[in-house]
Amino acid sequence: MADPDSRLVEEVGALLRRAAAEAILPMFRHLADSDVSEKAPGEVVTVADRRAEEIITTGLRRLRPESEVVGEEGVAADPEVLDRLAGPGEVWLVDPLDGTANFAAGRQPFAVMAARRRRGRTEAAWILDPMADRLLVARAGDGAYRDGEAVRTTAEPLAAGSLRGVVAARFLPVELRERVAAGAGRIGAVLPGQHCAGQEYADIVDNRQHFAIFWRTLPWDHAPGALLVEAAGGVVRRLDGTPYDPADGRAGLLVAANESIWDTVHAVLLATP
């Protein structure tokens, strides 16, 4: 008998691909001015975001009628939707188009992401790169996979000067930004980021970079990637070293390919002098 969770992983992956094919890819570099609006200062949304979320939400409710859906655009329209995340039942986090600013400007990367949570725990995650049609999936306790092939983060304890990673500085408090700047010269490469959290997590899983630091940690932006990195052997913690919980509303996150790299980056870039 087929594992129902394995079947669900495949069905949700197919759903994300359908949303990309129907709502996102046809609009890439074909958006009219009226297709893009500002939902908050500095935060844009497109018709593709909203249509993709509709497709994914409808599909998830068909697959799992008893579950709740917390989507980025649903929360933008009604902030009380976020309260569903704290419930004990099954909740889906959906980012229909991560990297909207890139998409609206006609550039890559952008991603489609989802995570399944039950009893306050993220149990499964999906990150789709629509342009490459590359899907990363993970189930808690069962590893991470790229299009069916197992992926692992590096286990090598690299020195600071060999590390390459992202500091998403836009929302960092001034004091923390200054601390990072003071230590950045000791890191091999500190990158400004790609304005797409899904790609940052994918690059750690694929060993194209070793760490990422974020301040704003909206749950749909980070729950999928956090599980993927952890399932691949990496470490995801708050800046004070406590576990990451997408429902806690806190800020600050350090993601690293392994424990040693997490400790090194924290000591060099984040530790109080």
TrEMBL record:
InterPro entries: Inositol_monophosphatase-like (IPR000760). This is Inositol monophosphatase. The lineage of its organism: Bacteria, Bacillati, Actinomycetota, Actinomycetes, Micromonosporales.
